[in-house]
Amino acid sequence: MDLSSINPVLLLASLMVAATPLLFAALGELIVERAGVLNLGVEGMMITGAVSGFIIAVESGSPALGFICAAIAGALLSLLFALLTQVFLANQVASGLALTLFGLGLSALLGQGYVGIKPPSTPKLDLGMLADIPFIGRVLFTHDLMVYLALALAIAIWFFLHRTRAGLILRGVGENHDAAHALGYKVVMIRFAAIAFGGACAGVGGAYLSLVRVPQWTEGMTAGIGWIALALVVFASWKPGRVILGAYLFGGVNVLQLNLQAAGAAIPVEYLAMSPYLVTILVLVIMSAERSRAPASLGRPFHASH
Amino acid sequence: MKLIKHLATATLALGVATGAMAAGHGEKTKVGFVYVGPVGDGGWTYEHNQGRLAVEEHFGDQVETVFVESVPEGPDSERVMTQMALEGADLIFTTSFGYMDPTINVASKFPDVKFEHATGYKTADNVSVYSARFYEGRAVQGLIAGSMTKSNIIGYIGSYPIPEVIRGINSAYIQAKKVNPDVEFKIVWAYTWFDPAKEADAAKVLIEQGADVILQHTDSTAPQAAAQEAGNVYTFGQASDMIEYAPMPRVSSIIDNWSPYYIARTQAVIDGTWETANTWDGIGAGMVGIGEITDAVPADVKEAALALKDAIASGDVHPFTGPLNKQDGSAWLAEGETADDGTLAGLNFYVEGITGEIPQ
């Protein structure tokens, strides 16, 4: 075993990149579920974001515009889900699954002319002096804007949920929609907004995949990240801080296990390959040993007739 | 309980009836394809789909084709195959190693439907297996890779530790070692055939650890994109030409050409001459193609690579020719001896010089 060939600086730096798409998608879904809606269409919204962000970035030459359009595309697709489940009271699980299938098909169609094209590169943020700090500078301050935006978003969501009135209302809707309705809050409108926000986040996460992490467009390129994001929200007990921890753990252990393999570590590869899933679940389960539970109205349909 | 039983019988009878109807129809032959990835993966599944399109073009109205993409290996694939057989497919191509047991299971339930399983080794009265000698192409890649590397570290992204992949690693290593005795292989198992993000991560990790040539045995073009971003890294197209990444990083490729085989087998079903077969063709028969070697490769290396390709095609050179030892140092092939197909089909060890263990 030659562990000296693993560069810890590069390892930690790539960890942050590997975790970002997952973090975006999971944070979006966290808001959706906190509002009491279970949207299983994360994968579909991600891949739609991935393809639309890619197309716009290639056509306009601007990755920033690509990310914005990915957010819009993800939100638009999620509104379809919102319409089905909030207005027509369709089953949320079935609608979410349908959204994933629809997103995968739609993205394959849209992306047909864009296979094998290189997207414009997303510029790294120039943080000047900070990047020159030994070790920490290279690990923390040499990324593109989106990596920091994901972290900022997590903090903003925590602040929103626990320190603002609007956040309190959103949580109220998720815990007991009948009570929220009786208090005069527009449950359906609030849920529409939460679903659209979740869609936008998933779209951005997908675009990060196609514009930065891979970077290319390939059909079906999310390959299950949306499902991992869904699981992560549950294991993180619907708390933004734990979502960050989970996403970074998952991304980190994944990159670490590939590094260990390449360095020829004497650990059986099977264990290494399953380690990202195992470690993430274990840590989050142990952390959530104290009392924590799902939003009480999660997945239940709301009809304002009574 | 009784109702369920009745229902099951009815469904079964219906299935048999539709199956019989399709077989008795005799007008259109229906050919099904089960794919492990999306048809737009730019690699493995893309080439199988090109084969399907070639069948459609060749037979026109005589044949109808159906396909299901991104079918997970395992029980799910059994459901897809059963569905295809129930819908009247006469011939079904299952195009991934992990479909081996499901194919055998479903085939035993539909004796009148012909099955063709790619890269496996289990046959039955109505199940043939076919594969290409990708390792012949890997030998050519190994020669180029060994000549091109400056760091003497070649990264290899494996999918699953199955004989097909292990043959490729060995074959590439043997040739790379011949032209560059200092060469070292770093092997990473991705445990997936298709996951662009993971494949890109694997490529980046290998590049970070000093590899300046990346060989991949996964299906997407993600490692090519990662290498392009890193610059000064060479890659090879896998399964498909991946010419979009030429001349750098992609300097050559292995191209799977399934069309002639698919057309021949479909013809056999139409003629009623289909028989269980075990086909394993290489460069010589045209099942394995070597994509254009770009100008990023020096002329003398290109010449040597093409010479090796021709020698393999004509049968003068076998990529596994002794003297070769196994990884543990024990003797495998004596001077001038070549590996037989049986050993190659079940190859489960590295040759001497490769470090690391094969996951069991």
Strand content of chain A: under 5%
Largest sheet, spatial ordering of strands of chain B: 2-1-3-4-5-11
Number of DSSP-assigned strands of chain B: 14
Oligomer: heterodimer
Q: How large is the count of helical segments of chain A?
A: 13
Order of helices and strands of chain A: HHHHHHHHHHHHH
- The overall pLDDT average of chain A reads 89
Distance between the termini of chain A: 68 Å
Chain-averaged pLDDT of chain B? 89
Instruction: Indicate the radius of gyration of chain A in whole angstroms.
Output: 20 Å
Give a written overview of the molecule.
The complex is a heterodimer of chains A (306) and B (360). Chain A has 306 residues and is mostly helical. Chain A has one domain. Chain A is 71% helix and 0% strand. Chain A is built from 13 helices and no strands. Chain A has helices spanning 8-34, 42-60, 63-87, 92-110, 129-132, 136-140, 145-163, 165-175, 177-182, 187-213, 225-235, 240-263, 269-287. The relative contact order of chain A is 0.21. By secondary structure, chain B is of the alpha/beta class. The N and C termini of chain B lie far apart (43 Å). In chain B, the strands form three sheets. Chain B has a six-stranded parallel sheet with strand order 2-1-3-4-5-11, with helices on both faces. In chain B, strands 7-6-8-9-10-12 form a six-stranded mixed sheet, sandwiched between helices. A two-stranded antiparallel ribbon of chain B has the order 13-14. Chain B folds into two domains: 29-133 and 258-281, 3-Layer(aba) Sandwich (Rossmann fold), CATH 3.40.50; 135-256 and 289-345, Response regulator (Rossmann fold, 3-Layer(aba) Sandwich). Chains A and B meet through α1, α12 and α13 of A and β7, α7 and α8 of B.
